[in-house]
Design a protein that fits this description.
This is MoxR family ATPase. This protein is α/β, with parallel strands linked by helices and 489 residues long. The chain has 20 helices and 11 strands. It has a 5-stranded parallel β-sheet with strand order 2-5-8-1-9, sandwiched between helices. Strands 3-4 form a two-stranded antiparallel sheet.
Length: 489
């Protein structure tokens, strides 16, 4: 399965394992809640989908890399205790609380989450002394004598032995106690994720034309090369900051993230061509409709006669301009909503805690923000938004110097006009071809699509057409594999 299908299965598992009956008891007893085991190559986003699934289900998530743990930290340290059996006193060995289980209780106390995911990464790379402990965990949800709290689901992840020489082959007894999800790298699914994360348009257009460069692992005696989804996303993040600061970008910089000299050199050449081709099209201004009519006609003439490579580049850069604006407006709308919520809470707090006043309210917010940050519970941009709200509270109620807020509704309406104009522009350039379909798909997969309220009637027919094409391709591929298997037999 691909990474998106794995995420959906994790979400379904959370819903099923946390379901309760009319008496408040779990419908599936804890002992029968088989842990999930995500098996897949490194860098494809296994940790990320667990975080996303937990966030979407409104549950907590605590992550541990098992390679960093010893037997003592997993099951606790031994200590001597005295017990009486049949009238005689004996000195026996007991264990302190498991560091991992203790951290779950601390997390519950600090965040208020009573249910969540305990994510154990690199589970098949544990030391030999920890292997029996892992078997006990998978079967009984216990580290030593200490149980993982009820309501907490165990999700583990590992790499296949052929991609990691440190891996210990899991035996049948262990595999018989888990639900294994075998995950493969899928560039199509990753591009949807990448579009929502604002990955650099040059990377997206490059992988559109060369999907075989998305993921590669070569491990030989004198040669180790790898290209991963994590590498492309990290390259994008740093690449955009290099561009902002006007720093030099070359093949050696790309190789720091894309650990295949061949792919790194190829992308470097493509990136230079992308910069040369797209630099003169004034894409951000085209999207914002600020280009003079005469110059716009010249630009559109050049774009309409461009080859497939340039068209692909243009669509990705045009989507990047739209994505930036959607993120800005989405952030503004979320900020307005959150500001209204906090003002209501502030009013209630001041009514109940007149002595503490504004400062007491702010202190509580800062403490809550610190706990969320420590446990990785803040989504992208949330910390900045909460700090802005704290500044607004100080400015409005203490300093009387609040900054004026832009109207989210007006910005939303302006964005919708730009998106509609962008759709018309691409139809004018390329008709109802694949470029228009890519544009509509890209807009649809942006994280703030629903919040921005853009409705495109054409999307439904294009989406259905693309779905049928993908289904047909999959059926053809399955039939080809079936015939190959029969020929081998």
């Amino acid at each position: 399965m691909n990474i998106q299908e794995a995420k959906e299965e994790i979400i379904r598992t959370i819903k099923v394992y946390t379901a309760r009956d009319e008496d408040g008891m779990f419908r599936i007893p804890s002992i029968q809640q088989r842990p999930l085991l995500l098996m897949g190559p490194p860098g494809i986003g296994k940790t990320a989908i667990v975080e996303q699934a937990a966030a979407e289900c409104g549950t907590g998530m605590l992550s541990y890399a098992m390679t960093h743990h010893t037997r003592q930290s997993a099951i606790g340290l031994p200590e001597l205790a005295t017990h009486q059996y049949e009238g005689k006193k004996y000195t026996v060995t007991e264990y302190t609380m498991s560091e991992i289980v203790a951290s779950v209780y601390v997390y519950m106390e600090q965040t208020g989450y009573r249910e969540g995911i305990l994510f154990l990464d690199e589970i098949n790379c544990v030391s030999e002394t920890l292997a029996p402990v892992m078997l006990q965990l998978l079967q009984f949800k216990k580290f030593g004598t200490h149980k993982v709290p009820e309501g907490w689901i165990i999700v583990a992840a590992g790499n296949p032995p052929e991609l990691n020489h440190a891996v210990r082959e899991m035996d049948m007894a262990s595999l018989d106690r888990v639900r294994t999800l075998n995950i493969e790298a899928d560039v199509t699914v990753w591009k949807q994720y990448a579009a929502s994360r604002g990955v650099h348009p040059a990377i997206l257009s490059y992988l559109e034309m060369k999907p075989e460069a998305f993921y590669r692992v070569v491990e030989e005696r004198k040669k180790k090369e790898f290209v991963t989804a994590r590498g492309w996303e990290d390259l994008s993040t740093v690449l955009k900051e290099y561009e902002r600061q006007g720093l030099d970008i070359n093949r050696y910089f790309v190789e720091e993230f894309i650990r295949s000299p061949e792919v790194a050199a190829d992308f470097d050449a493509y990136y230079r061509m992308d910069r040369t081709c797209m630099g003169g099209y004034r894409i951000s201004e085209l999207f914002a409709e600020t280009v003079e009519p005469e110059e716009k006609r010249c630009l559109l003439d050049r774009l309409s006669s461009a080859g497939p490579d340039v068209r692909c580049m243009f669509i990705r850069h045009f989507l990047a301009a739209a994505s930036e604006e959607m993120s800005r407006v989405g952030g503004l709308l979320r900020r307005e909503t959150r500001w209204a919520e906090v003002k209501k809470h502030l009013s209630e707090y001041l009514s109940a805690h007149q002595a503490e006043g504004i400062q007491g309210f702010l202190t509580g917010r800062e403490r809550e923000l610190s706990i969320k940050k420590e446990h990785g519970l803040l989504k992208g941009g949330e910390e900045r938004m909460e700090q802005w709200i704290n500044h607004q509270i100080l400015a409005r109620f203490v300093d009387n110097s609040a900054e004026s807020c832009r109207n989210g509704a007006e910005e939303k309406e302006k964005l919708q006009k730009h998106l509609t104009a962008g759709t018309q522009l691409i139809r004018q350039l390329y008709g109802e071809g694949p470029e228009l379909c890519d544009w509509l798909e890209g807009i649809r997969h942006h994280g703030d699509y629903r919040l921005c309220g853009y409705v495109c009637p054409e999307y439904g027919s294009f989406s259905e057409q693309k779905r049928l094409e993908e289904q047909l391709k999959k059926q053809v591929q399955e039939m080809e594999e079936l015939y190959e298997t029969r020929n081998c037999i």
